[in-house]
Design a protein that fits this description.
The strands form seven sheets. Strands 1, 2, 3, 4, 5, 6 and 7 form a seven-stranded mixed sheet that branches. A six-stranded mixed sheet has the order 17-20-21-15-22-23, with helices on both faces. The protein has helices at residues 4-14, 58-61, 71-92, 144-162, 170-192, 260-269, 328-341, 356-359, 363-368, 383-390, 423-429, 491-507, 515-529, 549-557, and strands spanning 2-3, 27-30, 35-40, 50-57, 105-106, 120-122, 126-133, 137-138, 141-142, 195-200, 207-209, 212-215, 229-234, 238-246, 249-253, 283-285, 290-292, 300-303, 321-323, 346-350, 393-397, 410-415, 418-421, 465-467, 472-475, 478-481. With 562 residues, it is of the alpha+beta class. The longest helix has 23 residues, at 170-192.
């Protein structure tokens, strides 16, 4: 460890030298009130910015103990501090001048959801923030004077204004803690009341646009139908009222553009907690919920899809099914089985993004094509069995097929973005439009499959990870397509999935462990060691966020392994 005075001397000694001389700054420096670590130095002013971190001793930050009393509260406080620190950095970004990325200062840009991120971590000893800085240069010549402004003027001000409790609005922090406690209390209350979701009255479900997750201005607030309304007394907010969706099969229906998909999307993201002001603070869904859809062309490896597909004309075994190019129905069948393997207790489906022949076969079609000529057992005939046998509920959006009314326990009609309970009304009509008798055979729950190890020897370059936004990443020459994992909401989760897959490929995928064993080992490691164990470099960068169990399973299942 060095002193801040030594850093200033070193900056003076390398001024006007060639850019690579910046690498001599790598190390940890004591700024009296915090530690500054220069973890990685960029190769030139046009390369990706350098990685730095700051550690503020917990005693000096002086946050009250209640800010870290539970994991959920700690993550919420981390999220708040990161947003404050990010705002402070933006004030000073590019105020130091130079060529290329000189003077850029930034960290994670948080969305509407509260995620556990590498950019801000709180332990019993330190508050750590991680960020990037474009080290200034004129051409490719070091401009140490401009970097000195960043390190000795800008960053101390950011620490002072964003990471010390005495300088932050205490009431705001208290409200963030209270909201996190209320959200976690509500999640536990859902389990006690045998509910899979809750939407508070007054929630704003529509979003600003397809590229913005901020609440839509002047949107119609959500209101629960009285028949589904429940009241819950929260520790801090007090009694709130809203719609509780019970376990079982729930159908969301209604005319086009009346809010069916908007409601389902709100439920999809309800697996995450949302920040104050989002409008969905108390729209919460079973944390294991998985959104499922058809994925033409996806990779499937050794998955037991016999629950839905059997007796293929080519004699292919569906108890251990593999394909490089799945059809819509096959991909959706695999997705459901993989969701079961991940431990999901709630499936979310939209008729618009599902394979029609996988979801339902009407009476006329069954007359034309006899059952012994159709290898697909439709989801319509399995949904009730999944609930009865595995306690897996379903929430389904349907606007064109009435067959699902027969199996639904709860039917919600969306009318101009307002929910109406039409269960009793529809059930009276069902006898007039009977379903053909179901011939779906009983089934055994599929078991977890093993991931076979690769026999080829990979070089270091084969393991290089490159993210393509939120939708994909490459591991060596292999591309993992995540476009249709709709509950993956941040590119930093994708970055972490890449690191998890790389670590698993190097250390865990040996042909002996099941996928479930591999994923649980990775989660235990994240819980115990945080990001440090899975990072493929000597430091933890900003730009990583912990994904859910379900997304880890989904990612590994889409990795085109041998």
């Amino acid at each position: 460890m060095f002193t801040s005075y030594q850093l200033k001397q070193q900056l003076s000694s390398i001024n006007r030298k060639s850019y690579p001389a910046y690498k001599t700054l790598k190390g940890i420096y004591d700024f009296k009130y915090y530690l500054l670590s220069i973890d990685h130095v960029q190769g030139d002013p046009f390369a990706s910015p350098s990685h730095l971190s700051i550690q503020v001793p917990a005693k000096l930050a002086d946050f009250p103990d209640y800010c870290f009393s539970t994991k959920a509260i700690r993550i919420a406080v981390q999220d708040y501090l990161l947003r404050k620190f990010s705002h402070q950095l933006s004030v000073y970004s590019f105020k130091a001048k130079g060529s290329g990325k000189s003077g850029s200062i930034s960290t994670t840009n948080c969305g509407q959801e509260v995620l556990e991120r590498s950019a801000c971590e709180i332990s019993s000893d330190f508050i750590t923030v991680r960020f990037t800085v474009g080290f200034p240069a004129n051409g490719r010549t070091i401009n140490a004077f401009e970097l000195e402004k960043i390190l000795f003027d800008f960053l101390p001000a950011c620490v002072e204004n964003a990471l010390l409790y005495k300088n932050l609005p205490h009431k705001t922090i208290e409200n963030i803690v209270f909201l996190a406690e209320d959200q976690e209390f509500l999640r536990q209350e859902l389990k006690k009341r045998h509910l899979v979701a809750f939407l508070a009255n007054g929630s704003i479900l529509p979003r600003e646009s397809g590229i913005s997750q901020k609440p839509l201005q002047n949107a119609i607030p959500f209101q629960s139908p009285e028949s589904l309304a429940i009241e819950i007394s929260l520790p801090h907010k007090g009694t709130i009222k809203g719609m509780g969706i019970p376990k079982g099969i729930t159908l969301i229906t209604g005319g086009g553009y009346h809010g069916k998909s908007t409601l389902l999307t709100a439920l999809e993201t309800g697996v995450y907690n949302h920040i104050s002001g989002d409008g969905r603070e108390f729209v919460l869904t079973d944390a294991s919920a998985v959104k499922l859809r058809s994925e033409d062309g996806r990779f499937i490896k050794d998955v037991d899809i016999s629950l839905f597909i059997n007796d293929l004309p080519n004699g292919k075994d569906t108890h251990c099914f593999s394909t490089l190019d799945a059809s819509g129905s096959t991909s959706q069948a695999a997705g459901i089985v993989e969701g079961i393997e991940a431990g999901s207790k709630l499936f979310l489906l939209d008729e618009d993004t599902s394979a029609t022949n996988f979801m339902v076969r009407d009476a006329f079609m069954q007359q034309v094509i006899s059952r012994d000529k159709e290898p697909i057992t439709p989801f319509l005939e399995r949904a009730a069995q999944l609930f009865a046998k595995a306690d897996i509920s379903t929430i389904l959006v349907a606007g064109s097929c009435g067959a699902f009314f027969h199996i639904a326990d709860t039917i919600i009609q969306m009318d101009n973005y307002q929910a109406m309970d039409i269960t009793k009304k529809v059930k009276k009509l069902c006898p007039k439009y009977p379903l053909p008798p179901s011939a779906a055979a009983d089934f055994c729950m599929p078991s977890s499959h093993r991931i076979m190890s690769s026999t080829k020897k990979s070089s270091y370059k084969d393991f290089k990870i490159k993210c393509q936004g939120k939708d994909a990443f490459s591991l060596g020459k292999d591309i993992v397509d995540l476009r249709y994992i709709e509950q993956l909401i941040d590119k930093e989760q994708t970055a972490t999935l890449g690191e998890l897959l790389k670590y698993a490929r190097e250390h865990l995928i040996d042909g002996k462990r099941t996928l479930a064993e591999i994923v649980h080992t990775l989660q235990d490691s994240l819980e115990k060691d945080g990001f440090s164990k899975i990072c493929n470099c000597s430091y933890i960068p900003c730009g990583m966020a912990i994904p859910r169990t379900e997304e880890i399973f989904s990612c590994f299942n889409r990795y085109r392994r041998p």
